[in-house]
Amino acid sequence: MAGENNSNTPAVQGSKKGLDQLKNEVANELGATLGGDRTSRENGSVGGYMTKKMVQFAEQQLKSGQKI
After folding, report:
1. Domain coordinates in residue numbering, the chain
2. What is the pLDDT of residues 14-29, one digit of tens each?
3. Which residues contact residue 46 at a Cβ distance below 8 angstroms, ignoring those fewer than 6 apart?
């Protein structure tokens, strides 16, 4: 709800900095501004696009035979 802190933690220790960087890059690509004053749709579009990019990256790694 409004004003609550985010309690999500990355599944991999030490990945928070990289995920935050990806989040900001995606927000810039989409022309979105993140924040509590934005709608769920605006903030959620960034998360959805982040997921899409991470899946594409994983698929490329699997296709090339590299471990993820």
Report:
1. 16-63
2. 999 999 999 999 999 9
3. 23, 26, 27, 30, 32, 34
Amino acid letter, 9:
T
Spatial CA neighbour of 46 closest among 63, 19, 27, 64: 27
Helix H or strand E encompassing 50: helix 40-63
Longest CA span, the chain: 44
Give helix 16-30 / helix 40-63 axis angle, nearest 10°.
110
What are the tokens at 4? 């609550």
Sign of the four-CA dihedral 32, 44, 16, 22? negative
- Whole-model pTM: value is 0.71
DSSP calls for 4-20: PPP----SSTT-HHHHH
